């Protein structure tokens, strides 16, 4: 598990193309923990902060890439830490303000107020699309992959 965590944090998929196979190792780890729920690894993975991170994982999936691109998080360690923090914050906010209310049928998500909230969000996103400068495309050397 520590190796998977270190690989996720330290290695990128461009220089280490085998990194994408880590998903098979992660699935195996999850399967083993489900079968042996009293093991030390399963106990660690049931730790409340990790469970909370799992509850916002979909939001992290959605938010991490735009945050990394807008902050140019590859430039320095400080920006990378900021990208992590901002991505987690946005994921928590979107879970609390969007995912859970829609999932649990909050009053504001129904009828006219839901349509107004949706229209406001779409207008805000369109304005961000227009106002923010387009990031420079990354340069990827494909010669080392073959």
UniProtKB/TrEMBL annotation:
The keyword Membrane applies. PANTHER family: ACETYLTRANSFERASE (PTHR23028), ACYL_TRANSF_3 DOMAIN-CONTAINING PROTEIN (PTHR23028:SF53). It comes from Paractinoplanes brasiliensis. The chain crosses the membrane at residues 16-37, 49-71, 77-93, 114-132. It comes from the Bacteria. GO terms for biological process: lipopolysaccharide biosynthetic process. GO terms for cellular component: membrane. The lineage of its organism: Bacteria, Bacillati, Actinomycetota, Actinomycetes, Micromonosporales. This is Acyltransferase-like protein.
